[in-house]
Amino acid sequence: MSLHGNLLGPEPTRLPVDPAAAELAGCTDAKAVAAAHPASMIAWATLAEDALASGEPVTAYAYARTGYHRGLDQLRRNGWKGFGPIPWSHEPNRGFLRAVAALLRAAEAIGETDEVERCRTFLADSDPAAPGELGLS
Fold it and tell me: Which residue, 90, 83, 35, is CA-closest to 63?
């Protein structure tokens, strides 16, 4: 790195592995996982996605917002400065990106258009591939 830093922008943020992901993959109840791992973005994202699938957008919004804020905390602890790449290709980042996508969908369902646009922009800025991977393109 030069005296002036990375002139191409910040390095991508890569979150550490979320231990709750293995529990969810093993079909453990998402509510139990969120209770045991309240900082887990993937647990909150899963709860939000399940609530959306059940036609409960307000509940989904609350779950997704929790996952989003837990994710912002973890991103900052891992060097993110409020901007820069959060690559979808890095598996541990997907819990956060899924929470943002669920927040977008829930906000859309309750008519919160400003939040929809913020989430859409955030996902595209985080990784241009993320909206497509999340079925939002």
Answer: 35
Residue 60 to residue 74: CA distance in whole angstroms: 21
pTM, two decimals, is: 0.92
The pLDDT tens digits of the residues spanning 11-34 come to: 999 999 998 998 998 888 999 999
Closest CA to 45 of 89, 91, 100: 100
Q: Are 84 and 13 in contact (CB under 8 A)?
A: yes
Cite the DSSP H helix spans in the chain.
Answer: 19-25, 30-36, 41-53, 57-77, 94-110, 113-126, 130-133
Q: Crossing angle of helices 41-53/94-110, nearest 10°?
A: 30
Q: What is the pLDDT of residues 51-72, one digit of tens each?
A: 999 999 999 999 999 999 999 9
